[in-house]
Design a protein that fits this description.
The chain is α/β, with parallel strands linked by helices and 558 residues long. The chain is built from 23 helices and 17 strands. The strands form four sheets. The chain has a seven-stranded parallel sheet with strand order 11-12-13-14-15-16-17, covered by helices on one side. A five-stranded mixed sheet has the order 2-4-7-6-5, sandwiched between helices. Strands 8-9-10 form a three-stranded antiparallel sheet. Bound molecules: zinc ion (ZN) (2 copies). Residues 322, 324, 393, 509 line the site of one zinc ion (ZN).
Length: 558
């Protein structure tokens, strides 16, 4: 049993506070903790902490105590390395994240460190994929929200040439691990100071001349500040994906270049500095490849054939066809939504509240429809500069009918149909419900087709190719829904949808005015992952064309 006293407890608290105040040289201050430990600390944990402290310093102590999403902690727990070896890697090379570790493995610099050697390097290399999988993932929307204030502040800083998110966030992956930001700047100190001012009482994990790692809401945020002249190399490497970078490296080698995490080298070992990623792509004979499609499957082959898509951009979006108001579970009035859509420069929007049997907290009723129509009529008069479509989001009922009588549906400008619950139905039954809805002449669009709920509920496992085929046949639009919990369809599915010839809508499915922009942005990002171009998307077209497309369905199917 370990005994301690109040003074020791204070010392313990002080030591942790010091550690959190971000100075790497505070190791010495932690020592007294172990001479007279506080009573309430588990002896086993204490032994482990002491071992860590003696070999790894406070970075490890901290990350273990606080149960952090720190990559180093996972490496330690993977048994690939001992604490001593980990401490050597951290202290000699400044390795703090999986990306650092992968770079060090790639450059074979680990094996030369004292006490490491080829075998340990191989063990770390083998552990890397599972380490990546073990870093807790956060939804893209949340990662966006955490990264944005840093990006805004850093971009406004004099001397910062550019600042971008890197990694899975930049690629628009639906779940993101740690957040990495790259800021090209000559004065790294200013950048670090500014970054520390972004969040209140930041907890710093690591700080060196051109790197800062801190914790914000338990998410690790890394900031790299490469010199502008070669910053493109850092951004390219940290953006990944690993498979894309590997494929790029192989392509570079075939054209006589050596591509490393540190930059592009000639065969004689001379660095060819790259201020931007585009510099690197062009030097090795490729057009720049957008981050969202850097998956390492067929994008380099497509680039070589000159067949890269011109991906849809947020600027191409002319309106938003899916959003909710206080008539169902939205938080804001129709007018508030209209005003924000005008601010966003949209030509049109559609108000699409939930139908009576939806599980939403509040629904549009049959009696409510004409009153809502009247409110919209008045708003059209008040805001003639934007087209307000009156739509609804109807649930597809268990037997495939939709949740408003045809007489009611006829009064809407467009009708979105969705499944919000599976009712334990088999994929075949679910598909039948979708198909029945699509065959309805008044149904314009299938929303969030997989009905997944990130990160908790996976989507339906349907025969989506059959669904897309029917969408084309019945002229029904299919949606990429930008709500952070949906991002549905995801990129891979969206790519299959356009390959089948389906027309997509990208929507915000926003329930509040302040989220209209962000959720549309997430929708566009997700569609870009699916190689979607503006020509595939209904709401990149002017309102007359949108109306014609909606009419075409009603007329054809009838
Ligand atoms: Zn919905
Ligand atoms: Zn909705």
């Amino acid at each position: 049993m370990i005994r301690g006293d109040a003074a020791a407890e204070t010392r313990y608290a002080r030591a942790l506070a010091l550690a959190r105040s971000s100075r790497l040289d505070s190791d010495a201050e932690l020592g007294p903790l172990f001479d007279a430990p506080p009573q309430n600390i588990d002896p086993e944990i204490l032994t482990r902490l002491r071992q860590m402290y003696e070999t790894g310093g406070w970075v490890l102590v901290e990350s273990t105590i606080a149960d952090l999403p720190s990559d180093l902690r996972w490496l330690f727990e993977s048994d690939a390395v001992t604490l001593e070896q980990l401490a050597t890697i951290h202290r000699t090379l400044g390795v703090t994240s999986n990306a650092d570790l992968a770079a060090a493995v790639g450059e074979r610099t680990l094996q030369d460190l004292p006490g490491i050697g080829v075998e340990v390097e191989a063990a770390i290399s083998a552990a890397l994929p599972s380490l990546r999988a073990r870093v807790p993932r956060i939804p893209l929307g949340r990662a966006f929200g955490l990264a944005e204030p840093f990006l805004e502040r850093l971009r406004a800083l004099p001397g910062v040439v550019w600042a971008h998110a890197a990694g899975s966030l930049r690629r628009g992956q639906d779940l993101v691990g740690d957040i990495e930001i790259v800021a090209a700047a000559d004065a790294p100190r200013d950048v670090i100071e500014e970054a520390l001012r972004v969040v209140e009482a930041p907890r710093c994990l690591h700080r060196s001349a051109r790197r800062l790692y801190l914790l914000d809401e338990r998410v690790q945020i890394g900031i790299r500040i490469p010199e502008p002249a070669n910053a493109g190399a850092t951004l390219l490497y940290l953006t990944g994906s690993v498979r894309h970078f590997d494929a790029l490296r192989a392509h570079a080698a075939a054209t006589g270049w050596l591509l490393t995490p540190g930059g592009l080298y000639t065969s004689d070992g001379a660095l060819r500095p790259a201020a931007s990623e585009d510099d690197i792509y062009r030097t090795i004979g490729l057009p720049p490849i957008p981050p969202e499609i850097r998956n390492g499957d067929d994008e380099i082959a497509a680039a070589l054939r000159g067949e890269l898509p011109t991906l849809v951009s947020p600027d191409a979006i002319l309106g938003d066809l899916h959003m909710h108001s206080t008539w169902s579970d939205g938080r804001d009035s129709i007018e508030a939504m209209v005003l924000e859509c005008r601010t966003l420069g949209y030509q049109y929007l559609a108000i699409t509240d939930h139908s009576p049997h939806s599980a939403a907290s509040r629904n549009l009723t049959v009696e409510g429809v004409p009153r809502q129509a009247e409110e919209i009529r008045q708003l059209r008069e008040r805001y003639p500069d934007i087209t307000i479509l009156h739509g609804c989001e109807v649930d597809i009922l268990p037997d495939g009918r939709v949740d408003f009588p045809d007489k009611v549906l006829e009064g809407f400008d467009l009708v979105l149909a969705s499944l919000h619950e599976g009712l334990g139905h088999s994929p075949d039954q679910l598909l039948k419900r979708y198909v029945a809805a699509m065959k309805h002449p008044l149904v314009s669009m299938i929303t969030h087709p997989t009905n997944r709920l990130l990160p908790h509920r996976p989507g339906y496992e349907l025969d989506y190719d059959r669904l897309f085929e029917m969408a084309v046949e019945t002229r029904t639009l299919v949606e990429v829904d930008g709500a952070p919990a949906h991002l549905d369809m995801d990129g891979a599915l969206a790519r299959r949808a356009i390959a089948a010839g389906a027309t997509l809508a990208i929507s915000s499915d926003s329930h509040r005015a302040t989220m209209l922009r962000r959720q549309m942005q997430l929708g566009v990002l997700t569609a870009r992952r699916g190689w979607v171009e503006a020509r595939h998307v209904v709401n990149t077209r002017p309102i007359e064309d949108v109306r014609a497309i909606l009419r075409a369905k009603r007329d054809t199917v009838r």
